[in-house]
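Need HAD-superfamily hydrolase, subfamily IA, variant 1's 3D structure for a figure. Predict it.
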Amino acid sequence: MDNTLFDLVGAMREACRCVVDYLGTGDPEALFSQFLRGIHGFEDHENIRDYMSELGVYEPGTFEVCCRTYEDVKLGLVEAYPGVEETLRGLRDAGISLAVVTDAEAPQARRRLDKTGLIDYFETVVTPEVSGRRKPEPDSLLYALQRLDASPARAMMVGDSLIRDIAPGRHLGMVTAFAAYGDWRDGSPADVQADIVLAEFAELAGHVGITGR
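Structure prediction for HAD-superfamily hydrolase, subfamily IA, variant 1:
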């Protein structure tokens, strides 16, 4: 979902900039890096609290405003990449069942899919609350396959992370399509290769033999 259907990281970075602007001190990239530490969740507001504490500007009321600002800006900037909705419509009209498998918590996933107008294209949305595990563990993928009544050999995993999406998909025997346009991470593991590399989401249509527009 995130960074495959839309640019979440870009929205997060801009949200961090708006928080720093409100505080009048700090650095947006330094705030964004707080979310990458793995101490709290990738979208946990405790990352903002920690950053404010490091700057010596933490105050409960200010923290609440920063969190609201962060969430409002982030969600407001989330928009489907060009060609995503047309491609999903083509897949659905061709009778291909679609599921979202995401590590985002259910409320965040639903808000973003609602905001982008994409939620109705998917038969199921699998989050960690549903499967009990996060990627790269295969639990969410297996749950989605079960809900779609699909065997791995007849399914495709499309994702922007070679480690968290492509590797577990290949392990299960799925065809894998790497959304390279959404990979914001530094460096890629040389030992993980996808069957298909996408420069844009719309290219997916040609790989499954449909017209995406």
